[in-house]
Design brief:
Elements lengths: L1 H29 L5 E7 L10 E5 L6 E7 L2 E4 L4 E4 L2 E4 H13 L10 E4 L3 E5 L8 E4 L4 E4 L11 E9 L2 E8 L4 E8 L4 E9 L10 E3 L5 E5 L2 E6 L4 E6 L6 E4 L3 E7 L3 E8 L13 E4 L6 E8 L2 E7 L8 E7 L4 E10 L4 E5 L2
Length: 352
């Protein structure tokens, strides 16, 4: 009898243990992930973090989360996301676009490269050449293709940036298997492609951190110790001299930021967009101190006179990631958050 009782008790205890483990796993499945962070620098609380979000995902993209600031800590939002080539889109927004595409007799999957929203239009870039590009009229839900001239040069490409300027859309793309950029100009009254340029670029200009469009339509490319500048509005090509070999370029409405990483510093220039075409002499660079040695830049964004860097340092003894914010007027680090663990997620970039 005692042995039977002990066996039953052991089975009950084992069952309870298994149930408890299952409950813990279930709770963890539905709980938002946590980032383990430590505030390193917050100079005079001078940095506005309210509109900064960071994406993280696992290897399978089954878990995708956005983290926003609550006080000085990053918290996961309750939103669900769908991956596409250049980032992540909120799930409900993606489903809405899927519905619109379906109503127009066309499928929409998450294999699209990029999209760009304005008040009037949403533009979608897909794998392939320009014939796969689509324009959505937001007010009517009508989906249109571009009108391509017969002699227009098209090739498989990867769209990197898009800008609307004076009712024209400028599309900047990298040509597949080639050191060339493709720049197309679209009339948004007719959706006609009215101009294009196939431009040879420097071998270092390989991805979307290496070239960009300014708000006045200039196409910028890193090119060794120069910035290659193409103006599609008047078909002119020029070069801006740099005091270093640039590793990336980005811009906002007023400034262009170009940079090169050193062991524990960022060498950079902050240039006014309106002066890019007129600078002849080599300007003096500025330096920003990095929180660790030789980190990888996952993403960066420029807001007014502040640059935000999301860094990865897999060999770091304490922190695997850093969010560092710099005041470009003073060349000082205004904010730095160390992130020691994001498991099972890998931080990928800022939410634009």
């Amino acid at each position: 009898m005692k042995q039977t009782y002990k066996k039953r008790l052991a089975l009950i205890v084992t069952g309870l243990a298994i149930s408890l483990i299952a409950l813990v796993i279930l709770i963890k499945t539905f709980l938002p992930p946590k980032l383990y962070t430590e505030l390193i620098i917050n100079a005079q609380n001078s940095v506005d973090l309210t509109d900064i979000s960071i994406y993280g995902s696992d290897f399978t993209y089954k878990q995708i989360h956005a983290f926003t600031f609550s006080g000085q800590d990053l918290k996961a939002t309750s939103q669900n996301f769908v991956p596409y080539s250049e980032g992540f889109i909120e799930q409900n927004q993606f489903k809405n676009y899927q519905k619109i595409f379906s109503q127009n007799g066309q499928p929409l999957t998450s294999t699209f490269q990029d999209y760009y929203e304005t008040d009037t239009f949403t533009f979608f870039a897909f794998p392939g050449d320009l014939s796969t590009f689509r324009i959505l009229e937001n007010a009517t839900g009508k989906l249109s293709s571009l009108n391509l001239p017969q002699k227009l040069y098209t090739h498989s490409m990867y769209v990197s940036d898009m800008r609307v300027i004076d009712n024209q859309l400028i599309i900047l793309a990298g040509e597949a298997m080639s050191y060339h950029a493709l720049i197309y100009t679209v009339d948004l009254n007719t959706f006609d492609v009215i101009d294009y340029k196939r431009l040879e670029t420097h071998p270092s200009a390989l991805n979307s951190m290496h070239y960009t469009l300014t708000d006045n339509g200039l196409a910028l490319f890193i090119a060794g110790n120069t910035l290659q500048i193409y103006n599609p509005l008047d078909d002119t090509l020029s070069y801006f001299p740099l005091p270093f070999e640039a590793e990336g370029v980005l811009c906002n409405t007023q400034y262009t930021f170009t940079y090169a990483l050193q062991e524990n510093e960022v060498k950079y220039l902050l240039l006014e967009n309106k002066e890019l075409l007129y600078q002849k002499s080599v300007p003096t660079p500025y330096l920003l101190s990095l929180p660790s040695s030789w980190p990888k830049v996952l993403d960066l964004t420029l807001k007014d006179n502040l640059v935000y860097l999301l860094l990865e340092d897999l060999s770091g003894p304490r922190f695997k990631n850093y969010l560092s914010v710099y005041n470009l007027d003073t060349q000082e680090m205004s904010f730095c958050l160390g992130i020691s663990d994001s498991n099972p997620l890998i931080l990928t970039g800022f939410q634009n």
